[in-house]
Amino acid sequence: MAASLDTATTQPMPAAAPAAGGDARLPSLVGLTRSGLSEALAGIGVPQRDLRMRVGQLWQWIYFRGVRDFDAMTNVGKGLRAELARHFTLARPEIVSEQVSVDGTRKWLLRMPPTGPHDRGAEVEAVYIPEADRGTLCVSSQVGCTLTCTFCHTGTQRLVRNLTAAEIVAQLVVARDRLGDWPGAARPTDGLVPDAERAVSNIVFMGMGEPLYNFEGVRDAVEVISDGEGLSLSRRRITLSTSGVVPMIGRAGDEIGTMLAISLHATRDDLRDELVPLNKKYPIRDLLEACRGYPGLSNARRITFEYVMLKGVNDSLAEARDLVRLLKGIPAKINLIPFNPWPGTRYECSDWEQIEDFSEVVFRAGYASPVRTPRGRDILAACGQLKSETEKLRARARLMLESGIGAEGLFVAGEAD
Ligand code: SF4
Fold this sequence. Notes:
Layout: E1 11-13, H1 34-43, H2 51-65, H3 78-87, E2 94-100, E3 106-111, E4 123-130, E5 135-138, E6 142-143, E7 161-162, H4 165-178, E8 202-205, H5 215-225, E9 238-242, H6 246-255, E10 259-263, H7 269-275, H8 284-292, E11 303-309, H9 317-326, E12 332-338, H10 352-364, H11 389-403, H12 407-416
Helix pairs in contact: 1-2, 4-5, 6-8, 9-10, 11-12
C-alpha cells in the first residue's frame, strides 16, 4: 500500500496573485447564476428588454471562454463594457497557496473576498485529482464543518459559514484558470493534467463541509456548473457526498439532481454514532430508507457508499458481510477508502491485506468495490485531510505558547506533522 509518498519532491508553489479583473472593492460577476447576473445588469440600468440577451453574452464570456477582462467581450458595445467595469469585476478568489503533490494532485488554499468590515475573507481548500483520462475537482461547500466525524480532519475545524453559490462556482473557475482549461489556454507543464479534452471532467462535493447543510448554495452552484452554454459539466459528472442529512436527501434528488454518495463507514449504529455523530439523529435504517427513495435511482445512477478503512474498528470480514446485507436492493457502488492519517488522529489505516479481503467479500456479492488510491497524502489533500492552512498556523502558534519552544523548532514539528 502506498502509505507514504516521496514528499521531497512536493512543490509548495509561491502564492499567486489574485486574478486580474479590476478594482477589488467592486463585486465580481464570476459565479453568479443567470438570475443573479440579470439582477446585476438591471441594477446598472440595462433595459429590461435586453437583459436576456446581455446575460447570454456575459454567460458565454465568463463561463465558456473564462475571460478576465470586460474589454475582451467583443460582442458587447464599448459603452456597456465601460459601465460594467465601473461597477463590477471578473475577479476570482485569491490563491493563497498552491501545492502540487508528487502524484500530480493539486491543492489550492483560496481566500474569498471579505463579505463585510469584520470579515477578513473566508479560506477554503479545493483539490484537483488528475487521472489518465479524467480530472476530478473536489470542492468545499462550507468554511469548516459543524459535523465532528471523528476520522475527519476537517471536522476538527469549527464552522465559520456557508459558502455562497458564487464562491463554490469560483473554485471551479480558479481550477480551470490554473489548469489552462479554457478554449485556447495553455496547460501547465508541472504536474499531471489528463490527456483529455477537459482538465476538469468531474466534480465532487467532498471538500470542507456538509453540502446538504448549505442546500441553496449547492443547488445554485450546480445550476451554474451544469449549464450547457457555460461550464457545462453534466449533473451525472457531479457527485454530492453527504454524511446522511436524511430529511434533505429526497429534496436533493429532486432539486439538485446530481449523483449521490453517502459517507457510511459503519454497519452498526453504535459504531456509526461514534464515527459520524450525525447518526444519532439519523440512524442507519432511516438513512438507507432515504437512499432507497432517492429520485432517479437506477442501475445507471447508483449511489456510492463510502467506507473508510479503519484498522480494528470497522474492517472485519463480518462487517463486510453486514455491509452487503444492509445495501441489498439499493443500486450501489461501494468505495473503500484507505484511511488517510492526519496529525493527532486516533485511527490507523487497515492493513492492505485486510482491505483486499474486505473488498473481495463485497466484490463477490456483486458490488463494484474500488479501493480508492490515496492521493495527495504528502500535501494533506487526501480525503478527510482538508483543513485550512490558517487553522494549522494557529494551532502551531498555540503549541508554541504552550511548550515555550522556538519558532524554528515548531516549524519543523509542524512540517513533520
Ligand atoms: S466527513 Fe464531511 S461532514 Fe464529516 S466532519 Fe468531515 S467535512 Fe464534515
